[in-house]
Amino acid sequence: MGKKGTYQTKLKWLAGGYAIALILCYTLGFRKTAQVYAEYNEKQKMNLSGQTEAVSMNMLTGKRLVLESMRKLYTTDTVVLDRQFLEKLDSCCKEFDLSLKEYKPIPSHEPGEKISTRMITVEGKFEDALKMVYVFEQKEQLCRVASVNFRKYIDNRDKKSRLACTMYVQNLMTHETP
Predict the structure, then answer these.
(1) In the chain, what is the greatest distance between 2 CA atoms, to the nearest angstrom?
(2) Domain count across the chain
(3) pLDDT tens digit string along 138-151?
(4) Separation of alpha carbons 57 and 125, rounded Å
């Protein structure tokens, strides 16, 4: 018998290897599959009981409140907008020694647009005009400053150079302007 092993010993080695492979497969695959399946069944029961729906509704309500508060920062009614804005514009012009040259509402060309745009032109010192821009957009949050243009020109009447600041400010409207 010059052979290294008989069929019986080879069969024993094969059975032992099969047992080891089965244990490895169970530890690596079957146990994890059973855990995932158990989690799936638990989540299905939670969905049926409505617990996740309540949590989702609470999250949705919270997000809606945050979005609404952000929208209210720049949303206003036209009557309130004009009154508050003109009062603050007048007080800023007095406080910062600026002279109001032009206040002009710009009509919307789109029929469903709910954005109110105003053009304001003041004259005075650069720093004072910049302070007024800061007050409108950051401090009082009365509007959103869309554009600011500083222009230096020479007045023909007295031949002095002057600085004009033109601002375009915008607000979201709660309803259409009349």
Answers:
(1) 128
(2) 2
(3) 888 778 888 999 99
(4) 53
